[in-house]
Design brief:
Structural class of chain A: alpha/beta
Number of strands of chain A: 14
Helix content of chain A: 25-40%
Number of helices of chain A: 14
Oligomer: homodimer
Strand content of chain A: 15-25%
Largest sheet of chain A: 8 strands, mixed
C-alpha cells in the first residue's frame, strides 16, 4: 500500500471542535556562530509564553526539502502543508504573481517581468532601467494595460516594487515553462522565448508572448529610461489537489503578505483578509474559530530581518510574537505547531538548508522536558529530524484523526 | 523531479579556493558498555584540537546503509562518497583485488582466492592450507603466473597475506557474479563455478575459471600443504559514474592502505601516493591543496584496534590524530567533515551497524554548542540521524555549491 493510501484509509471523522493551528515564523531557524556570539535569535529572545508552551511540547527539527537544499518560500510552504515540494513544482513567475496579489487560476501562465533600458539597436543597456521608482513603474504598467487580450487569451499586468512587475496570460491550452526573454547580461538583445519542453500548449504560450512583445514595446518606445522589459520564470499555475481533498480539513490562511496567502490559495485554502499585525492575525483566528478546522498563520518579519542580517530585530520580532501569543491561546487549539518554512540565518542573510526547529503541542504530544523552544533544545526533542512534508501527519495524529493500523 | 536531478539543477560553480575535506577515522564509532567502563574511545581520548573544532561545528550521527545493517568497507565508503550502497554493489572479489593493490578496470572479473590442502581424491582437507606463511604464498603465486592468458583473456594473480591471494580475469564480454568454487567446509571436493544469473558473459567467465583450474591445479600438484585453491566472491568491477561526473568536484584520495585508495579509484578519485602516517597524509593535503576540490583522507588504525578489541590502542590512535590535526588546519578547508565509514566497537571486535558520529565544520555550519566530538555529544547535534549517502550534499551545501530551490 502507498503511504498516501494508508493515511487515507486510517482517517477518522473529526471529533467536535478539532482545531489544528500551524504558526509559521518565516525563516525563524538560525545558526550560532562567533559573529552572533554563539547565540541564535530564538536563544537570545526572552519568550516566557513560548517557553511555557515548549515545556509541554514535543520538539524536533525538519528538513524542508532534501538534505542541503535551500528552499524558496514556495517549496518551503508546500512542505509544511504536506505536499512533497518535488512533486509539486511552482514556477517563479507563479510565485511572483501570487506575491503581487494576483488571484491566479489553474492553467494561468505567469512571468516575472522587469523594466529595462534598450539602446536604438534594441540592445539591453540596463537590465533594471536604473531601478525606476514604483510610481513610474505603475504608470508604465497602466500604459501596457491597453493590451487586454491577445488572440483568445486575456493579459493581466500588475506592478510590483521598483522596476519589477508581473504579466499573466489567462486562456485555454497554454502552459509553461518557457525560456526567459532576459539575456541575463547587458550588451545583448531581448531573447525570443521558447518552450522548455516542446508541446502544442507551450508553443501557443510562446507565440502569445512574442505577440505581446510586438504590441508592448511600441507603447514604451518614448519612455526613458524604461523603454523595454524582460521576462523570466515563465510558468503556469499547476493543478494541485486541494488541501481539503487530501486531508479532509477546512483550511484558512491568515497572512499579511500576499505571497503567503497566494501559496495557501494554490491548494485551495481560504484566505482571511484584513490583518496587519501578528496580534490581529491571532484575533482573526479567534473570530473565525468556528468556521475552519485548520489555520495557517504566517509571520513574515523573522525572515525579513534574517535576510537583512539584523540579529536584534529578528530577536525582537520573536519577542513580539511571544508577547501576543496569549491571544491565540485564548482558544487553545487541539494541536499547535510552531515552526518556520526554512531557516534564514542572520550570518548568511538569506534562506538556508539548516533544518528548522519545530514544536508540537497537544493533549497527547507529550513533553520532552525541555525548557525552551530553541535550535539546541529541539535538537534533543522526541520528534527527531524529519521532513517538513510529514508535519501534517503528526498534527493530524495529535488531533486523533487516524485510526489504528492493523490489529 | 528526481532528487538527483534536483541537486544537479541547483549546482553552482565553485567559488575560488573551495576545498572539501572528508576525514575518515575508519570504524571510529563505538559503544559504551560495562566492559569499557561506560566510555567510548572518543570519550576516553584527550583531544584538545578536535574539541576546539567540535565547539564550532554541527554534529550528528549517520546510518551507513540501513538501520541495523553492518557494512563492509566497500558499502561504508561508497555511502560517504554519496553513492547509495544498494545501487552500487561491489563484489567481494573486487574489494579484495583493490585491497592487494591491483588497479582494476571496468569489467574485470575478480575472485578472492585462498590456498587449500586437497587429498589424493581431490577432497578439501584444510580450507586454509594450514595458513601458510606469506612468503610461501608469494612463491606459489609466482608459479601460477605461468598462466598469463586463457583464450582472449588476461589472467592477473597477486598474493595477499598468509594463504590469501587474488585472481583477476581481464578481457572482453565477461561478468560476474559467479558461484564460489569453495565448498565452504572440509570433506567436499572443489565445486564447479556457475553464473549466479544466466548470461552469455557470465557463462564465458565461468568457462574461463574452469579452464584456469585445469591449468593451475597441475602446477601445484607437488606442493605441500598448499596443493589447491578455492575461489569466492567472484564478481566484476562495475561501471560506476565517477565522482567528478556526479558532483563536479576534482577529488583526491589520501590513504595508506591499498583497499581504500582502490575504493576511491572505483569512482575515479585520483590516489595520492607516498604517505605512511596520518601526519604525512595531512601534509599531502597541504602539498596538493591547489590541485583538487575534494580530499578523502583515510585513517585505518581506529578500525584495526576496534577489531582487535583493544580499547587503549584505539583511544591512542584518536589522540595521535588529534595531535597532528593542526597540520591539516594550516590550510583550513572550506568544509571539514570528520566521521567513520561505520562503527567498530571494541566490545564487539568487528564492524557494526551503530550510526557513526559525524562532525561538519564550515563558516556556515553553525555551532551546536557541544563541547566535544563523541557519540553522546553528536547524539544531541543539529544534524540529527541521517544516511551516510547524504553527507556529500551537506558538505556541498556548506561550501555554498547549491542555488536556492524555487522562489
Amino acid at each position: 500500500m502507498d503511504f498516501e493510501d494508508l493515511y487515507k484509509s486510517l482517517r477518522l471523522p473529526n471529533p467536535p471542535d478539532t482545531k489544528l493551528v500551524l504558526l509559521v515564523l518565516d525563516g525563524v531557524g538560525d545558526i550560532a556562530t562567533a559573529e552572533t556570539q554563539f547565540k541564535t535569535p530564538l536563544e537570545a529572545a526572552k519568550t516566557p509564553n513560548l517557553d511555557q508552551v515548549a515545556r509541554g511540547s514535543a520538539m524536533g527539527r525538519m528538513i524542508p526539502v532534501y538534505p542541503g537544499v535551500t528552499p524558496g518560500s514556495g517549496p518551503g510552504h508546500l512542505g509544511l502543508f504536506g505536499y512533497d515540494p518535488l512533486d509539486y513544482e511552482v514556477g517563479r513567475g507563479v510565485i511572483e504573481a501570487l506575491g503581487v496579489g494576483i488571484e491566479l487560476q489553474g492553467g494561468d501562465v505567469a512571468a516575472r517581468a522587469n523594466y529595462c533600458t534598450l539602446d536604438q539597436q534594441g540592445i539591453v543597456r540596463d537590465r533594471r532601467a536604473g531601478r525606476i521608482p514604483t510610481e513610474v513603474n505603475e504608470k508604465l504598467c497602466e500604459k501596457l494595460r491597453k493590451i487586454k487580450r491577445i488572440e483568445d487569451t486575456d493579459v493581466i499586468i500588475k506592478a510590483g516594487k521598483s522596476h519589477r512587475f508581473v504579466v499573466v496570460f489567462r486562456g485555454k491550452d497554454i502552459e509553461g515553462p518557457l525560456t526567459d526573454s532576459d539575456p541575463h547580461r547587458e550588451g545583448l538583445p531581448i531573447k525570443k522565448v521558447e518552450p522548455v519542453v516542446k508541446s502544442a500548449k507551450a508553443e501557443k504560450a510562446a507565440r502569445l508572448v512574442s505577440l505581446f512583445y510586438g504590441q508592448a514595446l511600441p507603447l514604451l518606445a518614448e519612455e526613458k529610461p524604461a523603454n523595454g522589459f524582460l521576462l523570466r520564470g515563465i510558468a503556469h499555475m499547476p493543478h494541485i489537489p486541494t488541501f481539503q481533498e487530501r486531508f479532509a480539513l477546512r483550511a484558512a490562511a491568515i497572512a499579511v503578505y500576499p505571497m503567503y496567502k497566494g501559496l495557501a490559495q494554490l491548494i485551495g485554502m481560504r484566505k482571511l483578509e484584513g490583518t496587519n499585525t501578528t496580534a490581529e492575525e491571532f484575533q482573526k483566528y479567534l473570530d473565525e474559530y468556528d468556521n475552519f478546522d485548520y489555520f495557517f498563520i504566517h509571520v513574515k518579519a523573522t525572515d525579513m530581518y534574517g535576510e537583512d542580517g539584523n540579529f536584534e530585530q529578528k530577536t525582537a520580532v520573536i519577542e513580539e510574537v511571544d508577547k501576543v501569543l496569549p491571544i491565540l491561546l485564548k482558544k487553545k487549539p487541539t494541536v499547535l505547531a510552531i515552526t518556520g518554512d526554512h531557516s534564514t540565518p542572520v550570518p548568511m542573510k538569506g534562506h538556508s538548508w539548516h533544518p528548522q526547529p519545530v514544536l508540537l503541542h497537544s493533549a497527547v504530544s507529550g513533553s520532552d522536558n525541555l525548557e525552551r523552544f530553541t535550535e539546541t533544545h529541539t535538537n534533543r526533542g522526541s520528534l527527531g529530524l524529519f521532513y517538513s512534508k510529514d508535519l501534517i501527519r503528526l498534527m493530524m495524529a495529535n488531533a486523533r484523526l487516524f485510526d489504528k493500523f492493523g490489529a
